[in-house]
Every structure is written in C-alpha cells, then in structure tokens.
Amino acid sequence: MDNLDRVNGACKPSGRSQPEYLFVDRGEQLKKLHCHLVYTIPLSLIFSSDLGLLVNRFGVQPKVLPMVPVQLNDGSQHVEGIALLRKMVLARAFPQLNPQQQQEQVTQVFDDPQTLDRLCQISGGHVRNLLVLLYSCLQQEDPPLSRSCLERVIKGYRDDLGLAVTDQQWQLLDQIQQNKEVGEEPEYQALLRSLFVFEYRDGQQRWFDVNPALLETKRLQP
What confidence tens digit (pLDDT) does each residue in 52-97 have? Predict the structure, then answer.
C-alpha cells in the first residue's frame, strides 16, 4: 500500500496523530487483509514512543530504505555509493549494453565523467532527486550534457530549496551538520519530510546529514 507515508500528520480530536491512529490504533484491521502486504509508513512513527506498539501490531520491525550514501559521516566520499549511482544513470541511458560497455559510453551522455559524479554527489543519494536533476538538464540541452548546464540546474534547485527553509530550521540544519543526528521532536521530522535532511546507513553505522544542495548555501558555509 504505497504513499501512506504521506498521510497528514495532523492530530485527531482524540489527540492522536493521523499516522498513530491509522497504524497503531487500527493496526489490527490493517493486518486482516488475506494477502501478502507491504505498507509504507510515515518516518515519524520510527521515532515515536509508539514504535513498540507498532511492532507488536504487525509482528515485524519496520524496514527503513535510506539514501544511497554519497559520503561518509566524516565528510569523505563514499566511493561505492557514488559508483552505484553512476551505474544506475548509465544503465538507464544504455539498457542494452553490459556494465563495462555502459561505462565506456559515459562521454555520450556527459561531457566528462566528473560531471556525472557531480550529479550523483549533489543528489545526496536520493534517486528521485537525481533523476529530476538529470531531466532538468535534458530540458536545457542535448547530450553530452555540459558541466555548465548541470551547475545552472543545481543553482536553481539549491535556491528553490533554500527559500523554503525557515530561520529556526537553518539552526537545526547547522546542528545536524555538526553531529549527524536528529531528535524526536516534530521539527526534526519536518526536516526529513521536506528532504532537507537525509538518512544514511552502510551496514556498519547509521547517520543523518543535510541535503548536499543546502550545504552549498551561504547559510551553511563554514
């Protein structure tokens, strides 16, 4: 059941939020459909004090699909993550070729392999963001896409994203940039919902970081 993660988080007259009411209070009803089910749920429930009740209702621990890591929590590049994103873009461009052949054709799509890496990095590992940025480039010029075209698209994306951030949120983003953690408060959940902050996991650790586009704004520059 897709898109239920977008359920409005407003409180009902009982004082319960809509996600809590739907998945925790009415979880037994959601389980009774006689088929295999996968529900997408709001991320706020993962940080809720009702997480234990949620697990009891459904009998499984919620599984989080994090971003593809583009850098480690120490700021160094996540080589494997960038390689996977690069591979995904080229597979869409040349689906009929094998991975080695796809790599050899990179300059048919981008003026330089570094332009593709820049696209992968600024996406933050968010696949939909990556494809939106790529499509925006294709609306401006035909392949091979130039670095200058990509930078224009990135600037527009960065500026639009920055306009939506409040002064209080800038302060929270600065804290997250420093400690790579988020709290349980609704303000932090709003940052995640708005894609201002991404969650990463690489099998050994879990951390949060600011959307790379916002990191390039003056408000978050060192």
Answer: 888 888 888 888 777 898 988 787 888 999 999 999 999 999 999 9
The strand ranges marked E within the chain are: 197-201, 206-210
178, with CB counted inside 10 A (0-12, 13-18, 19+), is exposed
Angle 156-196-183 (CA atoms, 0-180°, nearest 5)?
170
Expressed in angstroms, the distance from the first to the final Cα of the chain is 43
Residue 65 dihedral angles phi and psi, to the nearest 5°: -100, 100
Question: pLDDT tens-digit profile of 117-164?
Answer: 999 999 999 999 999 999 999 999 999 999 999 999 999 999 999 999
For the chain, domain boundaries = 4-58, 79-163, 167-220
Query: Under the phi-then-psi rule, with left for phi > 0, alpha for psi from -120 to 50, and beta for the rest, what region is 179?
Result: alpha
* Cα separation, 73 vs 178, whole angstroms: 10
